[in-house]
């Protein structure tokens, strides 16, 4: 069965900041991870998502809110059993500060550390030039192209995001998922190119792929392929 090796007892994020929580475990994969808050299962969405690696999981929280506070329980499962751990999430208030240069002439309230998506577009340009505000990047541009499919590999390609969040894109995260499973598996956590060959596919398996852009603030929403592929030689049955 899996074993939780390291999990924080308490995590605190400033309100409206992006945050991530890293929890380590051991055991033999593949793993399935579930997250609960105050007894109710938490599903991935634009606000919260998690990425499963071979020996840890990262929970990403976008623009933390007071409503995110509570007691969380994470469950890690494999074919041999499961393990769980709990942590408490707290969200602290942030002081508002005035940003000069509002076209209306009154200044604008911007939460210190907020992402640029929270600010009016005509103010965003000024803040980015001043270097005072950066946020998460937009998703990579599609379509997500899949080529050179074999029984164990497939090559995927994409384009950079239209918006980098005001901070340079450092890398991309590539994930794969068998259509018969719900869990996404990391194929590469630090891809520097716009093309990647996914290894370790099971012959005859049906797969989907997705890619996220990463900057210093965190990870974008995914560009996800919509047409699954079957891992097999092109001349196979």
UniProtKB/TrEMBL annotation:
InterPro entries: FN3_dom, FN3_sf, Ig-like_dom_sf, Ig-like_fold, Ig_I-set. Residues 139-234 form the Fibronectin type-III domain. One of its GO terms (biological process) is anatomical structure morphogenesis. Pfam families: fn3 (PF00041), I-set (PF07679). The keyword Lyase does not apply. Keywords: Immunoglobulin domain. This is Twitchin.
């Amino acid at each position: 069965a899996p074993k939780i090796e390291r999990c924080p007892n308490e995590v605190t994020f400033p309100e409206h900041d992006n945050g991530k929580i890293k929890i380590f475990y051991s055991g033999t994969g593949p793993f399935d991870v579930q997250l609960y808050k105050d007894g109710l299962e938490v599903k991935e969405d634009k606000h919260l998502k998690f990425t499963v690696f071979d020996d840890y999981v990262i929970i990403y929280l976008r623009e933390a809110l007071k409503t995110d506070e509570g007691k969380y329980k994470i469950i890690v499962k494999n074919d041999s059993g499961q393990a769980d751990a709990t942590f408490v999430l707290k969200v602290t208030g942030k002081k508002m500060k005035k940003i000069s240069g509002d076209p209306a002439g009154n200044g604008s309230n911007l939460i210190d550390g907020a992402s640029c998506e929270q600010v009016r577009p005509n103010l965003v340009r000024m803040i980015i030039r001043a270097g005072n505000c950066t946020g998460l990047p937009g998703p990579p541009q599609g379509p997500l192209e899949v080529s050179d499919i074999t029984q164990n590999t497939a090559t995927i390609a994409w384009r950079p995001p239209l918006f980098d969040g005001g901070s340079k894109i450092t890398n991309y995260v590539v994930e794969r998922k068998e259509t018969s499973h719900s869990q996404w598996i990391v194929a590469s956590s630090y891809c520097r190119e716009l093309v990647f060959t996914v290894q370790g596919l099971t012959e005859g398996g049906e797969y989907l792929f997705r890619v996220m852009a990463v900057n210093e603030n965190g990870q974008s929403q995914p560009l996800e392929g919509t047409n699954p592929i079957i891992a097999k030689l092109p001349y196979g049955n």
